[in-house]
Write a structure and sequence with these properties.
Strand order of the largest sheet of chain A: 11-10-9-12-13-15
Shape of chain A: globular
Number of helices of chain A: 10
Oligomer: homotetramer
Number of strands of chain A: 15
């Protein structure tokens, strides 16, 4: 079958012919790929940025945001049938460690097992994963439409879900960066909280997209954005989500917070440099965020696929399902 | 001034002439009443139902849901000025006990101090209360429109706010009784959570109101309502709010829950009678609810007055304020 | 092999010869039993009390509190080796439904799957279970000493763990019934919270046991126990754990609570009968409790086996392990 | 009366004669000082470090950790009587803003109002404060023994109390710096959580003190301390409390955390400098901490004064009281 492989860092990936994977283990699942997302992490993989952080033997097949249809399953897989539309969680987990049992999929005791970063990914015709990493989509769902939710969407949802307890009525939240992750984060904030949502970006087009996604206010990042957010909110925002995470956004993002507020760091690249006196006097929290859990993915797909968050029906093990009837 | 007073239980209250109250204490506030709500509790006071539960010397001036404008203040009151539109929390609190300091206004160590139930209420031209019980409304607010929020609205908001952590995306909530409290509860649920909201009532008019308030589904209480909720939700609802609390609603409401769900008891009158084996095997929680706190009232008025929850600006001590500017 | 089987309700179980189980499925685990606990639920099974609540075909092998050593494993089991000492969670779960993924083992979408109640239990030489239900004990642990933790201990731990957020410094908790579950609940309360712990029982011997387990105060249940708890605590207890759950304990237990407190119903048998006005004015919560999760079991065994809660080391997937070195 | 005043930054404070304060406002309280703590913040005030951060007109009377006996009260003060032993919260608050109503005393809308930093402090014979800032101690309490709890103790307690939900059985916590705040933090951790507590310090004497305060393990800060903590805990600690907050402790403290762990920054002076990739891949949280609330102070004094946390009785508005009777 065809697969897109990285053979050397700094070189363009190549379209290769590789052997088809087989469901050899009892919990194996082979997915016929319907869509595989491309995100900034793929570009970082290609240019070698991750070579030391998450080492992997080359060549690797790219693709960590994968969706498709079940092609084959191992003998112990009971909750999936051939033909089911599915989306794949990016980490393969053991299911029996303390972290897995507590729903904390990203911290499985086996360590990270990230196809597309560390092994054979989904930019191929077929993709081998395991039963625990597969979330069933509603019948008729179009995998290509949701593949990017497996990382970009999952990450934005996960960060927002942590902030829900602090974002009650009268609260305010800022999305710094209204691009690939940010415009999803804004949708999550509007679907999951009553917070006033302010989008901040340098691009007017991105701000238009943010407003069309439900942001209540758009602020151009022209150097005065922190002051503008403080003016809009009176005392600063309860939560600031930094979907960029570069040196250019970190200080301004923290300056947007009210005393006692939380800075959610989602994007990465820069360095957090903050005087301790600022963190202590402001009682500021800086919260790093890493992708999300399998329940996060199930929930987030449900929100996105069904166009609304309030119409889900739990119909069985790990499924996402919609319901048409409304009074 | 004129005041509506109960002179004997079971007798109609009378419109009397009584002396005007004065701001004699440092924290006193005299409110010129713009509106005083009438709720089922008032009817229970008149008919003597509360005579033993919350004893009070007669006559009493009715009125525990009060809003108006500041008429006079004691010398220690700094956050209110004559003419400010305000709404009044129904409990007068000490401000220095552990409960007050933790925001748990209904459990002030001084015990309940409920004007309109235990003393001089707001069905009068002027009403004497204390600074801690007064919430400032936005300039131009019309007190008569919000007076009923001081108890009916506050109670519904408080119960819903407890359920927020359990009502994430994909969850479902039921409002049993879509009347005076229920239709407010539905609005709170829709404003504060992504839950699918099901309204249950015997009255088709009440169900129409519920749908116009945002309920996603309406179920007629015809004896099959518990089964209908289970069918709609697949496994039962995550939360059921019983705004009636009579023997006719309790059993059915609990039967609507999924295993692990919570029954929020808001209305009262009947008796909860449930076998322990049902509560244990279903791991069901029954949560009683009592009015709400001062922060609850501030937040709830904000939601209601501004027509949306996401446009508030904190402008000072204890105020509720709106903002017009939107991008 | 030998096994203890119930052939007819109301008849004594018999010691039978039955075939040995085999690890036929990929995730099967055969445990050589070191100890199987006997609890009141077993007596209820024998007398037929559960015949309608949890139907099962007779004969059944008794035994739902099981511990021993791994005898054989299926080919997909990686975290267990033959000879490992283990304790068994009482519910067999699918591992891929929403409840399992969130660590909510008792609400697996496959429904209850309770060996010893619904199928072949552990009162036998060998016991067949599945990998997800097996918790590894530290090397050298003596299974017979901990078998009863698999239900009685797990249930007490689970109920206490729910109350931890409400049991800060200065709080008080009551254990009603200091028997099989209660004396474990008291140990959990002392290990996990700074609450003042009051034990209530009719038996002086039980109260002596309670004090030796760490209870701060012992109250004889002589009809004045609710008043005594209120006197001891000033305003009533923050949490009351009813390990009995009979009609004789329910009303008194609720009467021990402070306003806003929670009644944890752990034992079962009677009927909760409470006026709505009592639940509403007191803002009382009644919380049913059902056994516990796999993480609960891992944690609880750790507390008990190691004689202290503060000396654990996470050493791999789902294990419980101790550490000798102390400064 | 005598008072210790700073007349110029960088100059030693002087013992001056100043007029006695009077209870002129309705909520004023005059405290006859029994003890006033001296902490590193006082040294920073004297040397001018705070001149820009928290500006104040000179001269100022030092002393922000104050305890003593009530000397006089204003006419609206009901919960205190002349002669009561008391401890004083370091921030004077309005009591009616949103923050005060929610128990968030450090973020009163009036802004910081910190006697000893911004105005007249307690290093004097008499000290003027307000009713809301005064916590009554048990009869017979010796104010000089607890004065330092008003800031050093309160701050350590507040930080630990935030971590309680993450510090269940089997968890581990590290105290970096076992000096004035650290040795109190260790006591709080042991009293309030079942966590394994590891103390880290350069001084062997400090480590001995830490062990005598209940620390389970002592690690010398010799450059290998982060590795030692990882070895002791297997995967890293769940929580690290940095009571130093200098450049020399920040990086090592974060390196002691397990993935998903939280770094509580309590001391200050240095700069937090952390690559975003480290915070994101490790999903690390950095939590700044600022003193504590009035309920924190009440609770913490109770723990300390009574020698145990489980023997408190709530006896009225805002009091701390002990109880002698034990079974």
């Amino acid at each position: 079958m065809k697969a897109i492989r990285v053979h050397a860092y700094g070189q363009p990936p190549r379209l290769d012919d590789v052997p088809e994977p087989r469901a050899t283990g009892p919990d194996d699942v082979i997915v016929r790929i319907g869509g595989a997302g491309l995100c900034r992490t793929d570009l970082h993989i290609i240019d070698g940025w991750f070579a030391d952080v998450i080492p992997s033997d080359l060549p690797i097949v790219l693709g960590h945001e994968n969706a498709g249809w079940v092609h084959a399953v191992g003998p112990a897989v009971e909750h999936l049938a051939v033909g089911d539309p599915v989306i794949c969680h990016p980490n393969l987990t053991c299911g029996v460690c303390s972290a897995c049992r507590a729903g904390d999929d990203m911290r499985c005791a086996r360590g990270p097992n990230l196809p597309g970063l560390m092994g054979v990914g989904g930019m191929a015709e077929l993709f081998k994963t395991t039963a625990r990493a597969v979330v069933k989509l509603p019948a008729g769902a179009e995998p290509a439409q949701v593949a990017a939710l497996a990382d970009a969407g999952l990450t934005a949802y996960h960060a927002v879900s942590k902030a829900v307890p602090a974002l009650g009525p009268g609260s305010s939240a800022v999305a710094v960066g209204a691009g690939g992750l940010g415009h999803i984060g804004i949708q999550c904030l509007k679907a999951m909280t009553p917070a006033h949502v302010i989008a901040v970006d340098t691009s007017e087009d991105a701000l238009k997209l943010a407003l069309s996604c439900g942001a209540d206010h758009a602020v151009t990042a022209d150097g005065q954005q922190a002051q503008q957010v403080r003016d809009l909110t009176g005392t600063g925002a309860d939560a600031v989500f930094d979907f960029v995470g570069e040196d250019t956004t970190i200080g301004d993002s923290v300056a947007m917070l009210r005393p006692g507020g939380t800075y959610y760091l989602v994007g990465y690249g820069g360095t957090v440099t903050l005087p301790t006196i600022q963190l202590v006097l402001g009682e500021i929290t800086v919260a790093g965020n890493l992708i999300g859990t399998n329940p996060d993915l199930t929930t987030w797909c449900a929100i996105r696929l069904l166009g609304c968050s309030g119409c889900l029906r739990r119909v069985g093990p790990g499924n996402v399902s919609g319901r048409a009837e409304r009074s």
